[in-house]
Amino acid sequence: MENRVPGEDLLTEHIANLDELQRQGYESTVRHGRNTLFWIAALLVVSQVLISYAHQDLTLQLLGIILLLGTLFAALGFYTRRKPFVALLTGTVCYVLLWSIDLFCGYARGSVNVTTGISGALVRVAFTLFLIKALPDAWKLERLARTP
User: Who's near 62: CB < 8 A, 6+ residues apart?
Assistant: First the structure.
């Protein structure tokens, strides 16, 4: 016969339920970050193909670069299932870097339109904030996965 404290099982079960609730909250935020990476991939490919086609600049090399970047963000979205923090951090850095390069090249060519620039910037800021918001919970989710 074991010596048990009467409330010990209840307390252990309560702590396990709290850990599960925390995990679900972290997974929800990481899922939002994952969806953001997929949205970035899709919108990047569609918008760049349409813009390049409209300006009659769409070449096979440019299409390859656009598809490569879209594939990169989609692959990072899938990788969030294994290593959410690494995938979201890499996606955030790549997205901000891509955004900076696009902004610099647009100003260098003189092809920045104020109206589309503001709406595009709002979408980019929103995506960046979604990715940044998911980073702390992705870190905590990876730490929970490492603990037995």
Answer: 52
* Whether the Cβ atoms of residue 141 and residue 23 lie closer than 8 Å to each other: yes
Which residues touch 38 (CB under 8 Å, ≥6 apart)? Answer: 73, 74, 77
Return the DSSP state at 131.
H
Q: How many C-beta neighbours within 10 Å does residue 148 have? A: 2
Residue count of the chain: 148
- Specify whether the CB–CB gap between 90 and 76 falls below 8 A: yes
The pTM score is 0.80
Token duo for residue 123: 């979408």
Question: Rounded to whole angstroms, how far apart are CA atoms 17 and 14?
Answer: 5
Instruction: Please choose, from the candidates 111, 138, 146, the residue with its C-alpha nearest in 3D space to the C-alpha of residue 32.
Output: 138
Q: What is the pLDDT of residues 3-33, one digit of tens each?
A: 555 555 665 665 566 677 788 888 899 999 9
The DSSP annotation for 51-91 comes to HHHHTT---HHHHHHHHHHHHHHHHHHHHTTT-HHHHHHHH
> If you ran DSSP here, which 8-state letter would residue 2 be given?
-
